[in-house]
């Protein structure tokens, strides 16, 4: 059974509503409007849409994913559709919604209505406002993957008193210049489409190029080894059906402006590791084409005694968080509960 | 002083002209029309444009580069503008035009007038026709880089009696599926531009994406570490000026159709290494994002006793041939002349 609570009147710059759970609901959703002072764009009124799952008295873990992730992390009785990290937030997992309360939100800008530069610091500040509204003084942990790891580092730098520990997977204190160039070209693909009102075509192409950065040659080598075909006089490679599907799926759920502004946000991201004043577990994937291992090492060095590094090798590269769920879960279990399963 | 010889009448399917060197010319250019039976496209009449540099009685080495390379490999007295491999074909180098005769051509399709699928086998057969026309029975060596390495492998498979040895740099017996996907998306960028008659914009974007495959994160990390700027409300990354220049340069010299058909040609390429019946030195670059080291190893294994592998590590990745000229020259010297400098 789903339950949403919405603020309808907005007399003040900061107007919030908390969700009230109905009896029997194992997850609640809500939204609130806040006036958010933004690093590069002045103050904007934005709507924060969240989902909170788990027992009311359990410690709260914030979970944040890539730029296309959202508040619905996992399927629950209340919201049974699959979430974006369904295999990681589940019974028996380190992120067990019977033991922990899992909070997530839609990124600022994800609705495509905010067409200004958005910084990871803005996302971190929005999360702090959300915690205020929900009466959550302190998170047990922040588990961030990709863009979520960047936001988590900003949260640890700007709101360290609201957080016990951070797990930053496949994201570092600044984007790698090669990855930034890759994203800049994706945004150009969108711009090329927009020139001719072919926004969807441009966005699909951008997503397809992004997929090459999320995955690895190893995976493509195994899946798409068939020789190309000549179709209507043109060469069509084995991976193109898959890439078509990736583009179409993404276009169906993503406003062009949301993609552009959140993609930019990754490139704007800069955090001084020395300023992150909470314990951080940095999880790096060897073979990640967006976040080189060296950047994760630099991050851990900058964290001094507060950082520890875990390295995975995965054919899924940057997407390992979503694919290597058993191995990620083991790491989360050790970090969140200690190796023996006791709450840390 | 430049010298071109051109066939003007074409009564026969195979009509050739050979260049006649003027006194004092150290290089000659010529062109000939041939009827070329193509693997996927029937027989087409194509113009082969070549350049030949060096003493008439010296052994001939054919040099072939990437899809944007051409017949002008190096600056000479006759053609003083810089060639695409100027630093490798020069006095004192393994490819010394005082000791060797260097032959190169414009790839079939490079003029943009042949809008059909072009196979590397077609290029190899065109080279054989060119040798016929020039009265060259056998090449001392074929030095191919990237697409040129693929064409060289086809030449070694289809015309082994015309070749003593092959040096195949940064190219293998088949393209890697990940690299093929990357190129397929570049061709989609062109198609997106063509939708609106913005051919140049699409081709520029394709080239910019290609540059990311030719170079490495290491190089970008060193050159473009500056944080992005916000320009007219949009994030602009440090590498974008460089990428703009790459796109503009390429568009100025490349017909859209040439790019599309030669890009496709890389993806069509398939050679059975067991069928390559000449000695082959395979040069691989660790860190090449288009040709994984494993593919070069597979190639050498397939060549059985006829293959030997040399591996370079370079921050220039796929472009190492054009950038690590001293190291490439050492390899070429050992292969072509023996380590002591004697002719092999």
Topology readout:
Two copies of one chain form a homodimer.
Chain A: E1 4-6, E2 27-38, E3 42-53, E4 60-64, E5 101-105, H1 120-134, E6 141-145, H2 147-158, E7 166-169, H3 177-195, H4 199-214, H5 217-223, E8 229-231, E9 234-236, H6 240-253, H7 256-268, E10 280-286, H8 293-302, E11 307-313, H9 320-323, H10 325-337
Parallel strand pairs in A: 1-2, 4-5, 4-6, 6-7, 7-10, 10-11
Antiparallel strand pairs in A: 2-3, 3-5, 8-9
Short recap of the structure:
2 copies of one chain form a homodimer. Chain A has 344 residues and is an alpha/beta fold.
What are the key terms here?
homodimer; 344 residues; alpha/beta; Rossmann fold; Rna Polymerase Sigma Factor, Chain: A; 2 domains; two-stranded antiparallel sheet; globular; disordered N terminus; EC 2.3.1.31 (chains A, B); transferase (chains A, B); Homoserine acetyltransferase (chains A, B); AB_hydrolase_1 (chains A, B)
* Biggest pleated-sheet summary of chain A: 9 strands, mixed
Q: What is the total tally of β strands of chain A?
A: 11
The unreliable regions of chain A are 1-20, 340-344
How is the quaternary structure best described? homodimer
Name the structural class of chain A: alpha/beta
Distance between the termini of chain A: 33 Å
For the record, what CATH class of the largest domain in chain A applies?
A: Alpha Beta
Active site (chains A, B): 146 (nucleophile), 288, 318
GO molecular function (chains A, B): homoserine O-acetyltransferase activity
Enzyme class (chains A, B): transferase
Protein name (chains A, B): Homoserine acetyltransferase
